[in-house]
Design goal:
Shape: globular
Strand content: 15-25%
Bound molecules: adenosine-5-diphosphoribose
Strand order of the largest sheet: 5-4-1-9-10-11
Distance between the termini: 23 Å
Number of strands: 11
Helix content: 25-40%
Structural class: alpha/beta
Order of helices and strands: EHEEHHHHEHEEEEHEHEEH
């Protein structure tokens, strides 16, 4: 438990948080694996692989257009768990790193500035030729063209699909190698490389914490675990964490 840690000075402590779909569930966004492996009625293979996009690009565009519209609707707001993580960043500044597997923007909306979207973002489109990313807030299909190539090229959702390389890996690994505390929130721990972050953090000597609705696949690798809805357990844990700091 945190209480057993030596009293840290705030400026000496480095905290890395990994979030997954569970943190956004209570904001109304469905998780991936809580619904028999279907994500809004589609298999992951259909909508989250390069092969799926090659087979049926229209379906994939439509799928992410629906997700983007839902995300931008006024009903979808950050919840107490997102707000708690924004509070850690306000207090800790650059010593806090937030890595998310989520493609929503609820961490930014709650006030986090440094967010590493390792699986990409719904609000970004990527040129099929150059790989250049650009912001997008409306529907995307084959008719959208990039502004980076001549002649211009088609854009795809800027989402890291299965079989593709997650973003920011060198930066994330560097942060994990220096972490004092690693906290994993709302992820089933089934998708690598994120599922392996707890091992890297353990190798670095970090205190590792799981906050999830239920034990994840790698739950036994965590030193401390709390189970329940993110809106309850994350804010409680963050309050304890921030209280434990020595601010001198
Ligand atoms: N509070 C806390 N945890 C929750 C809540 C909640 N309200 N609701 C669900 N959970 C937990 C579930 O118990 C589950 O363990 O969140 C986890 C969500 O797991 P997944 O649906 O597998 O999502 P995630 O781990 O983020 O998926 C990883 O897989 O499909 C790919 O690229 C996609 O980024 C995604 C990756």
């Amino acid at each position: 438990m945190l209480a057993n840690l030596p009293p840290y000075k705030l400026k000496q402590l480095k905290v890395v948080v990994l979030t997954g779909a569970g943190i956004s569930a209570e904001s109304g966004l469905k998780t991936f694996r809580d619904n028999n492996g279907l994500w809004e009625e589609h298999s992951i293979e259909e909508v989250a692989t390069p092969d799926g996009f090659e087979r049926n690009a229209e379906l994939v565009y439509r799928f992410y257009n629906q997700r983007r519209r839902q995300l931008l609707s006024p009903d979808v707001k950050p919840n107490k768990a997102h707000l708690a993580l924004a509070k850690i960043e306000r207090v800790m500044g650059n010593n806090f790193t937030l890595v998310t597997q989520n493609v929503d923007n609820l961490h930014q909306k709650s006030g986090n500035k440094n967010v590493l979207h390792m699986h990409g973002s719904l609000l970004s489109a990527r040129c099929l030729r150059s790989g250049h990313s650009s912001a997008i807030y409306s529907d995307l299909d084959h008719s959208n063209q990039c502004d980076c190539c001549q002649p211009t090229n088609s854009l795809r959702p800027d989402i890291v699909w299965f079989g593709e390389m997650p973003k920011y890996m060198p930066q994330i690994e560097e942060c994990l190698s220096q972490a004092d505390i690693f906290i994993s929130i709302g992820t089933s721990g089934t998708v690598y490389p994120a599922a392996g972050f707890v091992s890297l953090a353990n190798q670095s000597g970090a205190h590792t914490v799981e906050l999830n609705m239920e034990p994840s696949s790698g739950y036994n690798e965590f030193a401390e675990k709390h189970y329940g809805p993110a809106t309850e357990i994350v804010s409680k844990f963050v309050d304890t964490l921030l209280k434990g700091f020595n601010f001198d």
